[in-house]
């Protein structure tokens, strides 16, 4: 578990993180979201003891980072996939990391196997693809078999197969009971990966909830209806005070009514339905809705 308690970080006049409190629970993947400059990287650095808070604190399973005995066995992180000497092989890089943290050599082979790099472990890392470098970074994070894991933008620049692999890998780590915090700009990917979300803007907490709650709270649900009598049904729904939009393909999008209400109204007039499906808002919509005021620089016009 990770607990941020009134965490604040100032750089001169800039307040990068502002009285931020949240918890990240074990057994779940938690997405860490916020517009550019929101303070995500600064927060992650403070969790890892790479930066000191101006005030407040972060606890990892009840302890601040500085008090952790053999920290790599408690918390592992992927911050920058390029953090490996290009002339070193994956095996040599991990052996060096293991040695400097008093971890057994056997663990190097274990984590290389876990991330699927055993076959290329002796090749120099400079020749690795981005996906392979990300896997190597993840192997490094897992070296000490920690219960808490942080991943900063782990899927940036990866192809769909690489993204899927990382998604499943993170979900498996959470299913083993670990605490997994992951930041990403790819919201549609986060919607598929994370069960919980911590959303920040301008250094402050905007929302902490499950992903489903976050989307439901900040977007209006609609219901998609198809009927051979769409005109008649549309008129009936408007009569009842609902907002109805006729789509180009003849379907109706209804705002303000539940699918139960629409089904009952249709049945009362013997209107046949071919489809009645509630539509969920997207994480993108929810994110834009809630973080709109917290963006550092808004795009204006064409950006020229
Ligand atoms: N070392 C530093 N010195 C001065 N200002 C800093 C420093 N690090 C971060 N900041 C400022 O703190 C704020 C938060 O930055 P941070 O990098 O934590 O945001 P972020 O959410 O990770 O952004 P992004 O999504 O763009 O990576 C920004 O205004 C940034 O300019």
From TrEMBL:
Q: Extract the InterPro entries matched here.
A: AAA+_ATPase, ABC_transporter-like_ATP-bd, ABC_transporter-like_CS, P-loop_NTPase
PROSITE patterns cross-referenced by the UniProt entry: ABC_TRANSPORTER_1, ABC_TRANSPORTER_2
Task: Tell me which CDD domains the record gives.
Answer: ABC_BcrA_bacitracin_resist (cd03268)
Instruction: Please give the SMART domains that the UniProt record associates with this protein.
Output: AAA
Q: Does the keyword Nucleotide-binding apply?
A: yes
Q: Which UniProt keywords apply?
A: ATP-binding, Nucleotide-binding, Transport
Coiled-coil annotated spans = none
Q: What Pfam families does the entry give?
A: ABC_tran
- UniProt protein name: ABC-2 type transport system ATP-binding protein
Source organism per entry reads: Saccharothrix violaceirubra
């Amino acid at each position: 578990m990770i607990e941020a308690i009134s965490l604040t970080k100032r750089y001169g006049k800039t307040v990068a993180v502002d009285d931020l409190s949240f918890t990240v629970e074990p057994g779940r993947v938690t997405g860490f979201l916020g517009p550019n400059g929101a303070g995500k990287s600064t927060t992650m650095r403070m969790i890892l003891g790479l930066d000191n808070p101006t005030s407040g604190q972060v606890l990892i399973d009840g302890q601040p980072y500085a008090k952790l005995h053999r920290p790599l066995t408690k918390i592992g992180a992927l911050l920058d996939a390029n953090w490996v000497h290009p002339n070193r092989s994956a095996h040599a890089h991990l052996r060096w990391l293991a040695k400097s943290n008093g971890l057994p050599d056997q663990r190097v082979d274990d984590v290389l196997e876990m991330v699927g790099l055993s076959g290329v472990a002796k090749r120099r890392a400079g020749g690795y693809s981005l996906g392979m470098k990300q896997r190597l970074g993840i192997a490094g994070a897992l070296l000490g078999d920690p219960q808490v894991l942080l991943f900063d933008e782990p899927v940036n620049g990866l192809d769909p197969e690489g993204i899927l692999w990382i998604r499943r890998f993170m979900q498996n780590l959470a299913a083993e009971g670990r605490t997994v915090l992951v930041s990403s700009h790819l919201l549609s990917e986060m919607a598929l990966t994370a069960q919980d979300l911590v959303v920040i803007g301008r250094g402050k907490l905007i929302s902490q909830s499950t992903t489903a709650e976050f989307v439901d709270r900040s977007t209006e649900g609609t219901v998609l209806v198809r009927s051979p009598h769409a005109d008649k049904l549309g008129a009936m729904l408007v009569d009842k005070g609902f907002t109805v939009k006729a789509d180009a393909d003849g379907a109706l999008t209804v705002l303000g009514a539940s699918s139960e209400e629409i089904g009952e109204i249709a049945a009362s007039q013997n209107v046949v339905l071919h489809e009645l499906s509630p539509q969920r808002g997207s994480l993108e919509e929810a994110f834009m809705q809630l973080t709109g005021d917290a963006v550092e620089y808004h795009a204006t016009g064409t950006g020229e």
